[in-house]
Design a protein that fits this description.
The structure is a homotetramer of 154-residue chains. Chain A is of the alpha+beta class. In chain A, a hairpin with a 2-residue loop joins strand 1 and strand 2. In chain A, 50% of the residues are buried. Chains in contact: A-B, A-C, A-D, B-C, B-D, C-D.
């Protein structure tokens, strides 16, 4: 049993949790954290977008969207794009720059491939708020789980 | 009402959610996400540690601890240390390098101040698995909400 | 007196050094390192470009353009753009991703402002080889030496 | 022929250039840029140190050691350590945080391996001024040119 005694929107948090628990799989596009955070994951040509509604259960103690949650969305957008274009990968590193705090509305993270190598890929993703302003930029480096075959020396 | 129909440990997820909802405040050391992820936040001299048990509801679609969740723990360790030593700050940027996948057990993120300036501070945090092996390293740059006063030009 | 006994193009290195020494100032747009590396620094609206010819005296021991030299060009493009748009700043941090090795020809680094704050600015710069292919991406965070005045609370 | 008409220490710059030109090889430990910048490269167990004297020909237009020169030293310390411990590598990315400006004296960059993988290695390097204060921190990710053989599946 859950209650709403906390100083956050308990109904929104409970709805998110129930949505996460109601899922039937743990797969690209549909897994527990993506459902909990309400990620809407879509593809458009060579890019992947993750859109979600910001709720106060995702906040830091200072009352804004937690950097870790924004990072999760940025990471999901890049990891899903990589999986779509080149197969699953392991994140070697990422860096996020935060331009502005987010307190509500929708956030959309749009990922693009910067460079696709045989075994190493570089991606970036930009997070925008509902007004379309850029609020964060991520760049990342990935190692493909299954590198492309080396070209024939023919 | 929540159910356990998902292919994750539903009991662990439900316990985590109920713990998060049972909280009475949103403050440093005790806020929704920290309770949900089971963060045990402690201080030891000039460092801050965030320890948590890894559950499969924190996983990515590939079945390991999601980089965004590990980032959240690393970020909390740095933000809490900064708040303790110099007051609240805004994250300008962080970078995380991932050395090894985590599939269970406990993870401990230990933050240290690299350089404390009047308005800008630099921190790092290392995440270790239960065997004590380093699994990730974060470095970050912060802007203090309330910069220290400028020294008297006396 | 210098000689050409080293296994690099001694004439090119000597010409570069003489150009550097012949300068009359150490200022934005014209300073020793910029002359040594042959940087052509230009502005186009809201961007700054640094173009230079790659010589083997700029190489690493593996025979390609040294990452530190490419970083210098990227950094100069961002620092000069910042100075032009908002005044001089101190680099808090930068990150560079390297997409491809460079062995000759021209490289052009083009910087853009990502976000201009009152005291903190975020910039990026992309390096392209002569074929126009992106060979490196830099993102950076700067602190302005003279922050803009706070807006009147009026 | 070079002259000293520039507002930098022309004798120091000329000595550096002549030292660079007098070299006989382009190899790890001894190459043009390392000689030009006066890098003293040494190894101590599992670490590599690059020490150099700061001269004003290495300055930015604001009169302090150029970030690109400090980056070059940090990069050399990491690349040389990698080469010593695991063979030559390609830099995938590095990030540098700058804690304090450097105006003279000696700087020492000391690199350590953070994680050595079969094909990917992570390193860091700390730059200290003559007083022993940390002035910059670099973290980096490398891809080995010749990955270690995969373990026998035996």
């Amino acid at each position: 049993m859950t209650t709403g005694r906390v100083p956050i929107d308990g109904a929104a948090a409970t709805a998110a949790f129930n949505r996460a628990m109601a899922g039937q799989q743990e797969a690209f596009g549909d897994f527990f954290l993506a459902r909990l955070l309400g990620f809407d994951i879509t593809y458009d040509g060579e890019s992947c977008a993750v859109k979600f509604a910001v709720h106060d259960f995702m906040f830091n103690p200072q009352g804004t969207l937690h950097g870790g949650m924004l990072t999760t969305a940025l990471d999901v957008s890049m990891g899903h794009l990589l999986n779509r274009l080149a197969g699953p990968g392991a994140t070697l590193e990422f860096k996020i720059q935060f331009f502005a705090a987010v307190r509500g509305g929708f956030v959309t993270c749009r990922a693009e491939m910067l460079r696709r190598g045989r075994s190493i890929c570089f991606l970036q993703s930009t997070a925008r708020n509902e007004a379309g302003e850029s609020v964060a930029l991520a760049t990342s480096t990935w190692s493909l789980i299954r590198p492309a075959p080396k070209p024939d020396p023919a």
